[in-house]
């Protein structure tokens, strides 16, 4: 089922054991899907109730997920960063991000991470960032007390926020600079991640504090 995480932003999750999340951003009877997952009939009905799907955005080439089927069902174009187009199936028919996205959304390219990686930003109501795989927020609370103790005292990422791509990133330090600039130029009330727990308030402070800790 779709759940509202921010004004005009709905989310739904994968139905198997994978901790994946997708988003539907809507306003004025228009809907933009971000990294769409397979939907059941109930979720399809919820999306229809939001309005007409006008675009499907991919934050990374490997988040194509159910984009081909969604494009067919909704008759909407799929957009991805040009660097990542070669990795996408021809069945998707993805196009480069246009100069202007629907609903005033912004696709922020972070070329230092991986080819074709972007974060989607919604400036409404204090700012919402949907960073794809640029940020993870693993919910350590699910671990038993002994494991939480180990994480708290011995793991650098003990707060659960993972603000960098894995070590295979092209240039992790450049990713850090890009994230710092992202925060400096835009209000960031919410961090709605694809993996882990979303931050629905106070995200900017949490993100800056995590960046200050270093890798």
In short:
The protein is of the alpha/beta class and 215 residues long. The chain has helices at residues 41-50, 67-74, 145-154, 172-185, 203-213; strands at residues 3-6, 9-13, 21-27, 30-34, 52-57, 78-80, 95-96, 106-109, 118-122, 128-130, 136-137, 161-162, 190-191. It contains 5 helices and 13 strands.
Describe this structure in words.
By secondary structure, the chain is an alpha/beta fold. The protein is 25% helix and 23% strand. The strands form 3 sheets. It has a 7-stranded mixed beta sheet, covered by helices on one side. Strands 8-9-10-13 form a 4-stranded mixed beta sheet, with no helix packed on it. The relative contact order is 0.15. The mean pLDDT is 88.
Q: What descriptors fit this protein?
A:
215 residues, alpha/beta, 7-stranded mixed β-sheet, 4-stranded mixed β-sheet, 5 helices, 13 strands, 25% helix
What is this structure's SSE topology?
Blueprint: E1 3-6, E2 9-13, E3 21-27, E4 30-34, H1 41-50, E5 52-57, H2 67-74, E6 78-80, E7 95-96, E8 106-109, E9 118-122, E10 128-130, E11 136-137, H3 145-154, E12 161-162, H4 172-185, E13 190-191, H5 203-213
Cα gyration radius (Å):
17 Å
Query: What is the succession of H and E elements?
Result: EEEEHEHEEEEEEHEHEH
The chain-level mean pLDDT equals: 88
First and last CA, distance:
35 Å
Low-confidence runs:
none
Strand order of the largest sheet: 1-2-3-4-5-6-7
Shape: globular
Work out the helix count: 5
Oligomerization state of this entry? Answer: single chain
Largest sheet: 7 strands, mixed
Strand element count: 13
Query: Roughly what fraction of the amino acids lie in strands?
Result: 15-25%
Helix content: 10-25%
């Amino acid at each position: 089922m779709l759940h509202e995480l921010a004004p005009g932003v709905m989310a739904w999750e994968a139905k198997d054991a994978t901790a994946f999340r997708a988003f539907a951003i809507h306003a004025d009877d228009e809907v933009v899907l971000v990294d769409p997952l397979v939907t059941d009939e109930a979720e399809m009905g919820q999306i229809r109730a939001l309005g007409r799907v006008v675009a499907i955005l991919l934050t990374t080439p490997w988040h194509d997920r159910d984009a081909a089927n969604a494009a067919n069902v909704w008759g909407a174009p799929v957009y991805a960063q040009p660097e990542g187009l070669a990795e996408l199936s021809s069945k998707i028919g993805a196009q480069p991000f246009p100069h202007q996205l629907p609903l005033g959304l912004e696709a922020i390219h972070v070329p230092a991470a991986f080819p074709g990686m972007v974060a989607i930003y919604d400036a409404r109501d204090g700012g919402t960032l949907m960073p794809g795989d640029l940020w993870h927020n693993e919910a350590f609370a699910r671990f038993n007390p002994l494991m939480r103790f180990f994480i708290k005292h011995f793991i650098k990422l003990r707060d659960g926020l993972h603000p960098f791509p894995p070590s295979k990133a092209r240039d992790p330090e450049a990713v850090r600079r890009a994230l710092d600039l992202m925060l400096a130029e835009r209000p960031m009330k919410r961090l709605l991640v694809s993996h882990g727990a979303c931050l629905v308030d106070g995200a900017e402070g949490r993100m800056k504090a995590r960046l200050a800790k270093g890798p």
